[in-house]
Design goal:
single chain, about 240 residues, alpha/beta, 2 domains, two-stranded antiparallel ribbon, 5 helices, elongated
C-alpha cells in the first residue's frame, strides 16, 4: 500500500466485534447451508469495501467458495493472495453450549475463533483500514475463503492451485502456535483407501477354507498405526 494506518487509528473493540460477528455464524464443513450463510456475510463485507466478488457454487454437497478482488486489478499481474478457510469442525449449537462465545481477560473464545475465522477476519480488517486511510494496492489483492478445508479441501483444491499460480505472494491466515510462533509451513498429507477381500466358507464345516476380510483389515490397521513416528513428525491415523 502507498499509505499506512497509525496504530492510534485502530480500534480493538471494532476488530473484536468483527471477529465475533464471524464466529457467531456457525459453519461446520458438512453443512452447506450453514457455510453459505457465512459466505453471504463475507460477500456483503467484500462489497462494502468495493471488492469484486466471485462466488463459485459448492460441489459434492459442500458450501460455496468466495473470492474478493480489488477492483481494477489485472489478473495478468501477479499479486497478493490471501487464503483462509471459513468452515469449522464444530457442530451447530457449539457456540451456545460446549464452547460459548465469550471474552475472558485478553482471550476471545468461540467455535472457529482460533482456526481460523479470527485470522481470516483480521486480514480483511487490515485491508479495510488501509483503504480507509486512502491507500491503494501496489499489487492486485485477492481474498479467497475456502468452505471445506477441515475435510481436506476436496473440491476447492484446484481453485487454490489456480489462484496461487497467479500470485507473487501468498498469505495463509493460519493462527500462531505456542509462544506466538508464526506458521510458515505445514505438514504434507496423503489419504489412501484400503480394501480387503475375503473368501467365503461355511463357518461350521469348512472354516479352514475361508479367509476373513475383517481379520486381515484388523491386522492392517495395527500395522499402519505402528508406522507413526513422533521423532520424525510422521503420523498415521486409520479412520
Amino acid at each position: 500500500m502507498s499509505d499506512h494506518v497509525s496504530t492510534a487509528d485502530l480500534s480493538t473493540d471494532d476488530l473484536v466485534k468483527g471477529v465475533i460477528d464471524w464466529i457467531s455464524i456457525e459453519s461446520p464443513s458438512s453443512d452447506a447451508t450453514a457455510v453459505n450463510k457465512m459466505v453471504d456475510h463475507i460477500e456483503a463485507e467484500f462489497k462494502s469495501v468495493g471488492l469484486e466478488v466471485e462466488r463459485t457454487p459448492g460441489e459434492d454437497g459442500y458450501g460455496d467458495l468466495i473470492r474478493g478482488r480489488a477492483q481494477g486489478s489485472s489478473r495478468a499481474n501477479k499479486g497478493i493472495l490471501v487464503v483462509s478457510h471459513i468452515d469449522t469442525v464444530h457442530p451447530i449449537g457449539t457456540s451456545t453450549s460446549d464452547n460459548p462465545i465469550r471474552i475472558e481477560g485478553d482471550n476471545l473464545y468461540g467455535p472457529g475463533t482460533y482456526d481460523m475465522k479470527a485470522g481470516a477476519y483480521i486480514a480483511f480488517y487490515a485491508y479495510k483500514q488501509l483503504l480507509a486511510a486512502g491507500g491503494d494496492p501496489d499489487l492486485p489483492v485477492t481474498f479467497m475463503y475456502i468452505p471445506e478445508e477441515e475435510v481436506g479441501s476436496p473440491y476447492s483444491r484446484k481453485y487454490i492451485a489456480e489462484e496461487a499460480r497467479r500470485a507473487k505472494y501468498v498469505l495463509v491466515t493460519e493462527p500462531a502456535r505456542d509462544g506466538g510462533k508464526i506458521v510458515v509451513q505445514r505438514k504434507g498429507s496423503a489419504r489412501f483407501k484400503l480394501t480387503a477381500t475375503g473368501r467365503a466358507a461355511h463357518s461350521g464345516s469348512k472354516h479352514e477354507y475361508g479367509r476373513s476380510a475383517v481379520l486381515e483389515m484388523a491386522k492392517q490397521i495395527c500395522d499402519i498405526e505402528a508406522l507413526t513416528d513422533y521423532d520424525r513428525a510422521s503420523r498415521l491415523t486409520v479412520a
